């Protein structure tokens, strides 16, 4: 006699399947709902942690910059021309620093937007932040200040002053990180690879650097770009007179440091920083945050605030000052047109 089997009618099959789905739902509904909630929940980032990460990224990038220069393995190339017609250099120092800085940040906060001067992509994941916060930040900055991740744009300059780097004018070289929230610079880090010193700030009023005691508005020392000067000298002398001292300097990071109480003895002192041609935002964002935290200003030549959430370039020129009447400085400047400079 053949063994008897259990046969279900189509209706029975349907009921069995529904019962099975019900059991699965009750088993996994909590897991699924928590996963959905985690996915849809608005991510936030703690600003103190982001400041510490930004410093670590700038320092690690700086080590790469220094190593390539000391080993003389620059592999110098030209990646094009600036708007003023100057050759725009690219070295192994730029690329290696970019990889360290960019991936350290992206591996830590993959959901945060990061804009870098370089665009080198690698399949190798380089570095994860160890979440260590330096003592001076722990002492000066309180934790728990979180901002939505989708409001953040991070600007990194893996090697500021590449032209000077190739010429062995190393005092001008910096690595920089800036964090903008809703387009406003909130965190600024400027690191000097060849001295090892770092200036940082968190807006408002938290910094490891300070302004100098005095500045001169009547007969100022004005620092400008040595490689992208444009028509800036005539522009400055028309504003402040022929006796104005004009200091050429390399790198936007170095120029901002020249406005502060020097972190190193080899930094020249200037009263203001002026630029009249196109400049990229990864060059200036960190300096903007530093000056803002110390009560200074970095604006276009018309006195407008610079937005750090949109396009990568600033067309409106640049005026940076601290402890001076910034509005009065803007009023002294001749009429500015980006098309003429």
TrEMBL record:
Main location: membrane
Entry cofactors: Mg(2+)
Enzyme class label: hydrolase
Catalyzed reactions: a myo-inositol phosphate + H2O = myo-inositol + phosphate
Source taxon at top rank: Eukaryota
Gene3D superfamilies: 3.40.190.80, Fructose-1,6-Bisphosphatase, subunit A, domain 1
Family the UniProt entry places it in: Belongs to the inositol monophosphatase superfamily.
Protein name: inositol-phosphate phosphatase
Lineage: Eukaryota, Metazoa, Chordata, Craniata, Vertebrata
């Amino acid at each position: 006699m053949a063994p008897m089997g259990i046969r279900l009618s189509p209706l029975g099959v349907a009921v069995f399947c529904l019962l099975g789905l019900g059991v699965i739902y009750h088993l996994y509904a909590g897991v699924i709902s928590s996963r959905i909630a985690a996915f849809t929940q608005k991510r936030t980032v703690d600003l103190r942690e982001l400041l510490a990460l930004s410093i670590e990224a700038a320092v690690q990038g700086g080590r790469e910059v220094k190593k390539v220069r000391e080993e003389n393995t620059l592999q110098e190339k030209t990646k094009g021309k600036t708007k003023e017609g100057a050759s725009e250099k690219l070295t192994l120092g730029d690329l290696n620093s970019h990889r360290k800085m960019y991936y350290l940040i992206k591996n830590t906060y993959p959901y945060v937007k990061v804009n870098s001067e370089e665009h080198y992509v690698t399949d190798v994941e380089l570095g994860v932040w160890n979440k260590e916060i330096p003592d001076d930040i722990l002492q000066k900055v309180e934790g728990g200040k979180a901002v939505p991740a989708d409001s953040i744009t991070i600007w990194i300059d893996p090697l500021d002053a590449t032209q000077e780097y190739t010429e062995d004018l190393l005092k001008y070289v910096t690595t920089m990180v800036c964090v903008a929230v809703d387009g406003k610079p909130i965190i600024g880090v400027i690191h000097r690879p060849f001295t090892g010193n770092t200036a940082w700030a968190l807006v408002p009023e938290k910094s490891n650097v300070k302004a100098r005691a005095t500045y001169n508005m009547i007969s100022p020392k004005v620092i400008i770009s040595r490689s992208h000067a444009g028509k800036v000298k005539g522009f400055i002398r028309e504003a402040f007179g022929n006796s104005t001292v004009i200091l050429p300097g390399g790198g936007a990071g170095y120029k901002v440091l020249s406005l502060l109480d020097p972190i190193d003895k080899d930094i020249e002192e200037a009263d203001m920083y002026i630029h009249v041609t196109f400049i990229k935002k990864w060059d200036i964002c960190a300096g903007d945050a530093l000056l803002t935290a110390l009560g200074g200003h970095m604006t276009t030549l018309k006195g407008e605030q610079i937005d750090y959430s949109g396009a990568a370039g600033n067309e409106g020129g640049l005026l940076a000052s601290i402890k001076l009447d910034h509005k009065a400085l803007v009023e002294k400047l001749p009429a500015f047109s980006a098309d003429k400079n």
